[in-house]
Design goal:
- This protein has helices at about 80-90, 115-120, 180-190, 200-205, 235-250, 270-280; strands spanning about 5-10, 15-20, 25-30, 40-45, 50-55, 60-65, 70, 75-80, 95-100, 125-130, 130-135, 140-145, 145-150, 160-165, 175-180, 195, 220, 255-265, 285-290, 300-305.
- With about 325 residues, it is an alpha+beta fold.
- The strands form 5 sheets. Strands 11, 12, 13, 14, 15, 18, 19 and 20 form an 8-stranded mixed beta sheet that branches. Strands 2-3-9-4-5 form a 5-stranded mixed beta sheet, covered by helices on one side. Strands 6-7-8 form a 3-stranded antiparallel beta sheet, with no helix packed on it.
- β16, α4 (about 200-205) and β17 (about 220) form a beta-alpha-beta unit.
- α1 (about 80-90) crosses α5 (about 235-250) and α5 packs parallel to α6 (about 270-280).
- It catalyses: a UDP-3-O-[(3R)-3-hydroxyacyl]-N-acetyl-alpha-D-glucosamine + H2O = a UDP-3-O-[(3R)-3-hydroxyacyl]-alpha-D-glucosamine + acetate.
- Keywords: Hydrolase, Lipid A biosynthesis, Lipid biosynthesis, Lipid metabolism, Metal-binding, Zinc.
């Protein structure tokens, strides 16, 4: 597939399940969309009774506490969007309308793999328009406590380098770096599941979170071992899931990024926060457009700035 061409899915794909925090049933349908549509959500079943169209964009983020939420509770919000957004970005899909009949995305098995499988089942097609990228021109960095997140310029592509450091001996400290391509995403990142500490469960339940969490959709971490009888899918599944989340949150830039992302002890809030820092100064970035086929790697700069106006998952 020509990476310089915008893409969408070939036909609709429907998935259903429960929300990991609400525990309520929900159904989504991914619809093909035309060029330059981007990723957007059509929220039905809102408190007002009116359907709401919400762009998947960092400016629309309303919460990042244990998941990433866009929209608002009064007129219609969609929570826990990061796994689907990660799958779309990881597979290189530019344009999709996500119809959803509830306030939270289905958690499915806790990873992005079911979304990838649903997309692969219907196929990906070109939209007949050149793809655009956000090119990082100079470093931006945010810090919170001992953690940080930063974006830096690179010659081509999108590289992620994510490091976690937990007091839990079961999780510990680990780091994973990856040049994002659809093949690498499918193999290395999509199957990694969300995780949570068993000792935190009661506290989150009292706060109204993790009501739908179970061993079917979450890696449960005890004091000395993983509780799930099947164990881990990867020896470093925890950091891989953090990388999965970072891909999904950074997809809220609105266009794919040409740059390098690095984080230490990050999460949804910092992933979204580094986008805010990037777009705070038009000297930090520009918009570039791909020309020609995969072998023709030239990029045309078409603007000094782009007017583009965080489960992370620890249960």
């Amino acid at each position: 597939m020509r990476t310089n061409q915008q893409t969408t899915i070939k036909s609709p794909a429907t998935l259903s399940g429960i929300g990991v925090h609400s525990g309520n049933p929900v159904e989504i349908t991914l619809h093909p969309a035309q060029a330059n549509h981007g990723i957007a959500f059509l929220r039905t079943g809102t408190p007002t009774g009116n359907d709401r169209f919400i762009k998947a964009h960092h400016a629309c983020v309303s919460a990042t506490e244990l998941c990433t939420v866009i929209g608002d509770n009064e007129t219609g919000a969609v929570a826990t969007i990061e796994h689907l957004m990660s799958a779309l970005y990881g597979l290189g899909i530019d344009n999709v309308l996500v119809e959803i009949d509830g306030p939270e995305m289905p958690i499915l098995d806790g990873s992005a793999r079911p979304f990838v499988q649903a997309i692969d089942a219907v196929g990906i097609v070109h939209c007949g328009a050149a793809r655009r990228w956000i090119k990082v021109l100079r470093p931006v960095r945010i810090e919170a406590g001992r953690g940080f997140a930063e974006l830096r310029p690179i010659d081509r592509g999108f590289r992620l380098d994510v490091e976690i450091d937990f007091e839990s001996p079961v999780i510990g400290r680990s780091r994973k770096a990856l040049d994002l391509t659809p093949a690498a995403y499918r193999r290395e990142i999509a199957p990694a599941r969300t995780f949570g500490m068993m000792r935190d469960v009661e506290r989150y339940w009292k706060a109204g979170f993790a009501l739908g969490a179970s061993l079917e959709n979450t890696v449960a971490v005890g004091d000395t071992a993983v509780v799930n009888p099947e164990g881990l899918r990867f020896a470093d599944e925890f950091v891989r899931h953090k990388l999965l989340d970072a891909v999904g949150d950074l997809a809220l830039a609105g266009l794919p990024i040409q740059g390098a992302y690095r984080s230490y002890c990050g999460g949804h809030r910092m992933n979204v926060g580094v986008l805010t820092a990037l777009f705070a100064d038009r000297a930090n970035y520009c918009l570039v457009e791909g020309q020609g086929s995969r072998r023709e790697t030239a990029l045309a700069e078409i603007g000094a700035g782009l007017g583009l106006a965080a489960f992370a998952a620890e249960l």
